[in-house]
TrEMBL record:
It comes from Cucumis melo var. makuwa (Oriental melon). This is DnaJ-like protein subfamily C member 28. Residues 31-56 are annotated as: Disordered. Residues 31-51 have a biased composition (Low complexity). Residues 94-160 form the DnaJ homologue subfamily C member 28 conserved domain. Pfam families: DJC28_CD (PF09350). InterPro entries: DnaJ_C_subfamily_28, DnaJ_homolog_subfam-C_membr-28.
Length: 209
């Protein structure tokens, strides 16, 4: 007894006005292929050549529908050009032409914020809570502790360099006693600055990260 094929129509959307997306097409093709495979395996009268031909027709129909759906997604300038090369360069050229045409038509003339400085008070890459906190501190003339520490370190370095310059000039004048005394003080100051950078400033940065 011949096996009765299912009455469902997996490709009924071919006659509709709207095209489904690629996922729907693949799902429909997979379901129809499984039903066709189970029917063909249970039937003993269908020759192998006919089965392969039927499967090829299904694949061809599915490919044509997918091409039609993808063709509808393209800009009008590239639709219907199945034999042409649709490279990334072609799409970029289409976008550039549209931007240029819009500029010639003056569509960029009345944009909001034109001629005004950019609002850089909000950092899009920072955490919203931290960004709000920093803005509050900035309005009140304050800064985060690690920024204040950075200023303090830079000020200490500037003072240390000034002291080193004076001590070196005294040595050039032949007064080695001042250089000997200043050398020990400069070494202690430099060690204090290095400790402040290593243990305090870097510690704040590790906490921030």
């Amino acid at each position: 007894m011949a096996t009765r094929l299912p009455t469902t129509k997996p490709f009924s959307f071919l006659t509709s006005r709207s095209f489904p997306d690629d996922n729907s097409l693949v799902a429909a093709f997979s379901g129809s292929s499984r039903r066709w495979a189970s029917s063909s395996s249970s039937s003993t009268t269908s020759p192998p050549g006919k089965s392969q031909k039927t499967e090829k027709n299904l694949v061809d129909r599915l490919s044509s529908v997918i091409d039609a759906v993808n063709d509808r997604k393209l800009p009008p300038e590239l639709r219907g050009q199945r034999n042409s090369v649709r490279s990334e360069t072609d799409l970029i050229n289409v976008v550039e032409r549209r931007i240029w045409n819009s500029m010639e038509e003056g569509q960029f003339e009345n944009l909001p914020g034109k001629g005004k400085p950019l609002n850089l008070s909000i950092n899009p890459h920072a955490d919203p809570a931290e960004d709000t906190l920093y803005r509050i501190l900035s309005k009140n003339g304050c800064a985060p502790e690690w920024i204040e520490l950075n200023k303090e370190i830079r000020s200490n370095i500037s003072e240390w360099r000034s002291s080193l310059k004076k001590a070196f000039e005294s040595r050039g004048n032949g007064d080695h006693s001042i250089w000997t005394e200043s050398k020990k003080a400069l070494q202690a100051q430099l060690q204090h600055i290095n400790n402040k950078v290593s243990y305090q400033f870097h510690g704040f940065l590790r906490m921030e990260n």
